[in-house]
Amino acid sequence: MKLTRRSFIQNSTIAIASTGFSTVSRSQNSTNQTNVIVILLDDSGWADFRPFGSPAYPTPNVDRLAKEGCAYRNFYVPQAICSASRAAMMTGCYPGRTKVFGAHGPNAKGLDPKFSTMSEVLKHNGYTTAMFGKWHMGDQPGTRPAARGFDYSCGLMYSNDMWKYHPERPDFWGQYPLQFWENNEVTIEEVSKNDQKKLTTWYTEHSISFIRQQKKPFFLFLSHSMPHVPLFSSRKFDGKSGTGLYGDVMMEIDWSVGQVMNALKETGQSDNTLIILTSDNGPWVSYGNHSGKTPFREAKGTSFEGGVRSGCLAKLPNFIEAGSISDQSFCSIDLLPTICHLTNTPLPNNPIDGKNVWDIMIGRPNTKNPHEYYPFSTGSRFEGIISGDGRWKLHLPHNYRTLSLAGNDGQAGKYQQKEIELSLFDLINDPYETLNVVEKYPEVTTKLKTFADTHQNKFYS
């Protein structure tokens, strides 16, 4: 049965009360272990926030986060598509290992439970865990958040465009009602357009209530549905940016970041909480004025820099230098082992691919990336690698999509297919991947091609 707006709000209030959430401020957790908050945006462009870009809309709270932490300009995801990127971050495993490729639809199994998640390892170490927002790593009883280590959760199990109003395939996606879940129960049978306008606010309200209640160390995964299309902002942000709906959405996300930071300050937990803000991949440029910005080549759904390079901010006072900027490379698969190191949490029993890069994150001098390479893929196709130091990127020959005509106001544009030959790019001198230097640097090409062949044989044969 579909809930009315009033009954949903009433039920949400009851749920928060029954789980012990409240708006009463509490003191810092008694164990003094570091809290962890990961704020993940959906399809946000590298240049959507300062100090990475110069958007026309103001984002004072993200600006504050950057001034109090570090901006990492060479942060990567191993695949620029929703489910694959999220599963990689949460498990520390390449998509080739987990076989989570692309974007899963309704009722999909998603991430195999044999791969431990960040929430599971932290929960086993005594952390209280919560996930509010878009999940997109499984939509079956054994793969939804409640089964994957989260004590509390609410949100959508997959992308907010997988519904009957899809601009290109409404009949197909209309077969599946877009449901809103809370703590393993459906509380809205079919999310409406009006409900979508409240998603950012709902996720934020749950998050700050959760923060205010905690006396034990906690892990919060705030996974916004926005700015993935279809774009919606709440009434309080409609028209606020003066730059269009995308700007309104980004200003509301900025407000959300501020609410989280304020809740930490109010509860005395600012100095003991690691905050990481990033995006699952680059912008979905097909949607034109409803997509984010990146200065790099191509975008979401490709292994070029515009797809796999995301802006990343992190803050932890007394460890991460305030106002710093880092050009050292690391990847989302490194977050799980790095957070385990920081929190004295044992690594998963299953094999993982990420490595501890805490020394990179805190800017320790002369620190080298521990990886020889990072792999990139699109869907189930392995497409190339980047050297661990972030300088060299090798594309294997593959097809890719490139925008031929952008859409407008929520309508999708058109892509065309192109091919890239075996290509080597020097990202220090050519971050936009314009000049193939395979012939100029044959030794580098041979070395990376050997890594790529070994990786392909191990994970894709």
The named CATH superfamily of the largest domain: Alkaline Phosphatase, subunit A
CATH architecture descriptor of the largest domain: 3-Layer(aba) Sandwich
What coarse outline follows from CA principal-axis ratios?
globular
- Average pLDDT taken over every residue: 94
Structural class: alpha/beta
N-C termini distance: 46 Å
Q: For this structure, what is the CATH class of the largest domain?
A: Alpha Beta
What fraction of residues sit in β-strands? 15-25%
Q: Tell me about the biggest sheet? A: 11 strands, mixed
Low-confidence stretches: 1-27
- Summed up, the domain count is 2
From N to C, what is the helix and strand string?
A: HEHEHHHEEHEEHHEHEHEEEHHEEEEEEH
CATH topology of the largest domain: Alkaline Phosphatase, subunit A
Specify the helix fraction band: 25-40%
Number of helices: 13
Rg for CA atoms: 21 Å
Structural account:
The protein is α/β, with parallel strands linked by helices and 461 residues long. It has two domains: 33-370, 3-Layer(aba) Sandwich (Alkaline Phosphatase, subunit A), CATH 3.40.720; 376-459, Arylsulfatase, C-terminal domain, CATH 3.30.1120. Helices cover 27% and strands 20% of the residues. It has helices at residues 5-18, 60-68, 82-91, 95-98, 118-124, 170-173, 193-196, 199-213, 245-266, 305-308, 335-343, 358-361, 442-459, and strands at 35-41, 70-76, 128-134, 152-156, 180-182, 185-188, 218-223, 273-279, 309-315, 324-326, 330-331, 373-378, 381-387, 392-395, 398-405, 414-420, 423-426. Strands 1, 2, 3, 4, 5, 6, 7, 8, 9, 10 and 11 form an eleven-stranded mixed sheet that branches. Strands 12-13-14-17 form a four-stranded antiparallel sheet, with helices on one face. Strand 5 (180-182) and strand 6 form a beta hairpin. The longest helix is centred in the middle third of the chain and has 22 residues, at 245-266. The termini are far apart. 52% of the residues are buried.
